[in-house]
Amino acid sequence: MRGVNECFINLDIKFSCFSYVSIIPMQIVHYPHPALRFKSVDVQQIDGTLRKVVRKMFDLMYEANGIGLAANQVGLPFRFFIVNLNARPGNEDEELVFINPVLSKRKGDVVGEEGCLSLPGLYGDVQRAETITIEAFDLSGQGFAMDLDDLPARVVQHETDHLDGIMFTDHIKEGEESDQAELELLKFVKNFRDAQADKLFVVDEALQASVQAMADSGKISADFLSTPVHKLTPPEINREE
Ligand code: ZN
After folding, report:
1. CA–CA separation, 127 vs 173, rounded Å?
2. If you measure from the C-alpha of residue 17 to the centroid of ligand 1, how many angstroms do you get, rounded to a whole number?
3. Ligand 1 centroid, distance to 221 Cα (angstroms)
4. Which ranges in 129-228 belong to alpha helices (H)?
5. Number of folded domains in the chain?
6. What separation in angstroms does the CA of 54 have from each of 22, 70, 82, 181?
7. Is residue 238 assigned to a domain?
8. What is the CATH number of the domain that holds 7?
9. Domain with 203 in it
10. How is residue 99 annotated by DSSP?
């Protein structure tokens, strides 16, 4: 924790002084954080920093009871995501890392419910390809391909969308469910803007500049894991069953 009115240098960009109240390291960012709308760039090098970031992402994902997490959901504008369909630690064989993924051979259509760690508490029905092939690199730099269906196919489509700045709510068809999702999204926007107004969170331009600087540099800054960011609490959402 740092005190108030403290300046710091974030990824070589020196921001002007804001009043900081609560500062914590790498975290899952929530809508409408600009990183979630960023079209991520390819990973150029698989190194120790990337491996450390991936380890931390798994920890954050498990804390949030998630099964998938894309890099831009922790503010990193690079094309990789992680998956563990069991949503709990213990078996590293269940932990999958997809670096520079490419989807192909989309077949069939199937509708299923999705949620997102960047929109906690919000759920909606999304149409996806029923089966899909994904090619990617793993953490050792080895290329691999998988033919997927059911939940794994849905998860990799959801996560690959993130890398292109697409949220699952963008796919919800017009109608009552879409209207409901819009209302819930407004709560996230209000929460985010209120936090910025209270100077608990930096302005969009600074966040965007930070993300762009990382994308331009082509690699994850070595101090990314220790660079403090701001905590933001998601809004209360009442789920109608
Ligand atoms: Zn998501």
Report:
1. 9
2. 32
3. 24
4. 150-163, 176-197, 204-217
5. 1
6. 24, 10, 8, 30
7. no
8. 3.90.45.10
9. 3-212
10. E
Whether 159 is catalytic: yes
Ligand 1 centroid–CA 8 distance in Å is 29
pTM of the entire structure?
0.86
Distance 156 CA to ligand 1 centre (A): 10
Residue 184 lies in a domain: yes
**In Å, what is the CA distance from 100 to each residue of 41, 71, 78, 119, 137?**
9, 11, 8, 24, 7
Task: Select from 239, 233, 222 the least CA-distant residue to 11.
Answer: 222
Residues 6+ apart with CB under 8 A from 38: 72, 77, 165, 208, 211, 212, 215
Model confidence pLDDT, tens digit, residues 124-177: 999 999 999 999 999 999 999 999 999 999 999 999 999 999 999 999 887 878
> Which residue type occupies 224?
F
Average pLDDT over the chain reads 85
Distance 7 CA to ligand 1 centre (A): 31
217 by DSSP, 3-state: which?
A: helix
Of 82, 85, 56, 59, give the one whose Cα is nearest residue 69: 82
- Report CA(123)–ligand 1 centroid distance (Å): 11
CA angle 60, 63, 67 (to 5 degrees): 75
- If one counts every other C-beta atom within 10 angstroms of the C-beta of residue 50, the result is 22
Residue 232 lies in a domain: no
Choice among 95, 114, 159, 184 that is catalytic = 159
Tokens 């990799």 correspond to what residue? 156
For 37, 69, 128, 181, the CA distances from 168, given in Å and listed in that order, are 12, 13, 10, 10
Residue 229 lies in a domain: no
